[in-house]
Write a structure and sequence with these properties.
Layout (H helix, E strand, L loop, with lengths): L2 H13 L23 H9 L8 E5 L5 H10 L2 E6 L2 H19 L8 E5 L13 E4 L5 H17 L4 E6 L3 H8 L4 E8 L12 E7 L1
Parallel strand pairs: 1-2, 1-4, 2-3, 4-5
Antiparallel strand pairs: 5-7, 6-7
């Protein structure tokens, strides 16, 4: 096991959760394999200061809940995850339960994380959501619908929304370019975190404002 993999296991263990591994069994043309975002990438995003304790972070295709649990532990922000696959949803709930019991309650609090089982394109975005994370959970067809829902939510309750796209698909970026309410904000380089210097190892940040 190399140092990076060891770090992944250590952080899972510290948070009392189980999120390691890539799973492709259920993937199809519209739903992509489960692969958790590396903790090193999440740490870099946390270090940016763009997600704060008072924010509400929405994770589409949240899998086993890693991203939301990490950001709650690191920053204290509220989190909501949307997951299509029941097996992953149930694992996310189990991870939240363990994290809340072993980490949050001993500190005198609860975790402020919720998970929703269902299709992302049918999810009714809460008015409090102002930060949104994507790690290529689904096809551009579904992404287009999800973005329409986010824009509709913005018009219903005006607020500054930031979108974080890790390892972004070209089709996602093209969809955002077609959405007049969305503007490019910045990007976070993550190429140095992995071997090979893949230019797609970055977090692209967009905003609706």
């Amino acid at each position: 096991m190399d140092e990076k993999d060891f770090g992944e296991y250590l952080t899972d263990a510290r948070l009392h959760i189980k999120t390691i591994g890539r799973i492709e069994d259920y993937a199809n043309d519209h739903i992509y394999p489960y692969e958790p975002t590396s903790y090193s990438v999440l740490e870099r995003l946390a270090d940016s200061g763009l997600i704060r304790g008072e924010d509400h972070l929405l994770d589409y295709g949240c899998g086993k809940g890693r991203t939301l649990i990490y950001f709650h532990d690191r920053i204290g922000c509220r989190g909501t995850g949307v997951e299509l696959m029941r097996d992953f949803y149930e694992l996310a709930v189990a991870n939240k339960t363990a994290y809340e019991k072993d980490i949050c309650k001993p500190k005198g609090g609860t975790c402020g994380i919720d998970f929703s089982l269902g299709e992302a394109q049918k999810y009714d975005v809460p008015a409090s959501v102002n930060r949104v994370f994507f790690f290529n959970p689904f096809s551009a067809v579904i992404f287009d619908i999800v973005m329409q829902n986010l824009v509709q939510s913005f018009y219903e309750t005006k607020r500054h929304i930031m979108l974080f796209l890790y390892y972004p698909q070209d089709a996602y970026i093209a969809a955002l370019a077609r959405t007049e309410e969305v503007q490019f904000f910045d990007e976070i380089d993550c190429t140095d975190l992995f071997t090979g210097r893949d230019a797609r190892n970055r977090i692209m940040i967009f905003e609706i404002n």
